[in-house]
Amino acid sequence: MAYVAVKGGERAIDNAHAWLAEDRRGNPSIPPIDTAQIREQLGRSVDRVMAEGSLYDEELAALAIRQAQGDLIEAAFLVRAYRTTLPRFTASAPVDTAGMGIRRRISAVFKDMPGGQILGPTYDYTHRLIDFAEAAGFAPPPAPEMDSDGIAIGRINDILDSEGLIEADGRADGMAHGKAESEPGDLTRTPLAFPAARDIRLQSLARGDEGFLLAMAYSTQRGWGGSHPFVGEIRVGEASVDITPPELGFPIDIGDITLTECQMVNQFAGSKTQPPQFTRGYGLVFGHAERKAMSMALVDRALRAEELGETATAPAQNQEFVLYHCDNIEATGFVEHLKLPHYVDFQSELETIRRMRADAQKEYAA
To answer: Are 260 and 289 in contact (CB under 8 A)?
Structure first.
């Protein structure tokens, strides 16, 4: 009987796969979606899958989105699973975001700043109304040329830093003891452990679930973390990636990637060890993902509470709570495994409950 059950289960799974393929394709009279269409017209979805899948590959992310029928968490799962099969040849040098070719760059703290405000492509000033004209096939007006495209513009926080009004950059801040600044930890090779240094925390947040980080960031603004932040700067653009092959001994540019960086400026009244000054929260994400980068920067600052002498009482200030639960791939595994057979476990608990009820009835009758 067990063998028949297994064979029946295999047939059911094969049939489920076939049904899924048919459901994924949809009405065969409608042309299939090409991955190039997804990549070019659903760019924000592609960016999110690359970030949460922890792999920068637009074509692969688009393919995963199509395979997952638009389920971005499932698509990120596919990308991250594929990532584990890839060999690692080398590590890149730290990306210089000050040298990014800017597409969008704004600051909420300085109106007039070197390089100026560059609104770029944004939904910030659009009306949240369905555009039925676009659905009818009307083409939008052409975008103007961007004179700043490819021009390197310095960071806003450098202005505050020059006056000593903001804490030091802290590029080595939170590194594990005994490590050089150029040797951050690697969350993809070493399991998460606590307390986690800031380099590991930032890696975890960078590939964390956008919705979870958004909720955590929002909580800090509602009193669960005492945060009063300002957007020092958000910049979106292309940054070059350099590696130094051992056989060459000098860096080479292997290409550009699109990044979103957020420098969050936070009020800080000072502590026994720190003077009154502004403090930093930092976010850096693959693609054009401002909401994710801002949320990451807010949560990064919240997780630095103890380091800055603040009392950590809010969920967003708790390393284990945030870092264990922000990974939607791991969370998916724990939640969705409940759909799989648990017949033996449940039968055991069922027998336990029946026995407890019978014992209780005997005691009551006595």
So the answer is: yes
